[in-house]
Design brief:
5-stranded antiparallel sheet, 164 residues, mainly beta, single chain, 3-stranded antiparallel sheet
């Protein structure tokens, strides 16, 4: 049975204890990562750069990774997967493509405003299809920013891809 109690000060219910999220004074509060204070010491994949805004590295989060992912014009990630993690993304700007399937022969294009879900253990390559504009998206992943890099493939094998 789950312990459900109401906080007399706020009136909202909490299930179980969330004391693991308490700060040094023992109080549980939202944690803000200020611009410029994001964690850049996160798993990377070739020319795909991941910057952590919410993660175990600098917040009390234990079951989510949320960050910004970017590729400079004409660059791509190495082939990789995210282990057990489910991954969701939202394209902020640019034209991206995710290659997947056998020999990365299949692909889906994305543009600003598009959402993407990548299932666990799915090998893929994230590419910036523009040679002049940066590709930037937000990514959420559970439980953490798992990145398992796989053997690289030649650019020529990725249909329509070209480097800057």
């Amino acid at each position: 049975m789950t312990d459900t109690t109401a906080d007399s000060r706020t009136g909202y219910r909490t299930e179980g204890g969330n004391s693991i999220y308490a700060g040094p004074g023992g109080k549980v509060v939202p944690v803000v990562t200020r611009a410029g204070e994001e964690d850049t010491n996160t798993a990377q994949s070739g020319d795909c750069v991941r910057v952590s805004g919410v993660s175990i590295q600098h917040t009390p989060a234990t079951r989510i990774w949320f960050g910004q992912v970017s590729n400079v014009p004409g660059y791509r990630s190495l082939p990789h997967h995210h282990g057990e993690a489910e991954t969701g993304g939202y394209v902020l700007r640019g034209h991206g493509r995710i290659y997947f399937g056998e020999d990365y022969a299949e692909f889906i294009d994305m543009k600003a405003g598009d959402w993407v879900f990548v299932p666990p253990f799915m090998p893929h390559v994230e590419a910036n299809m523009s040679v002049t504009e940066e590709l930037v998206w937000l990514t959420a992943r559970t439980p953490e920013n798992i990145v398992v890099n796989l053997p690289d493939v030649a650019d020529e094998t990725l249909e329509g891809y070209r480097r800057a």
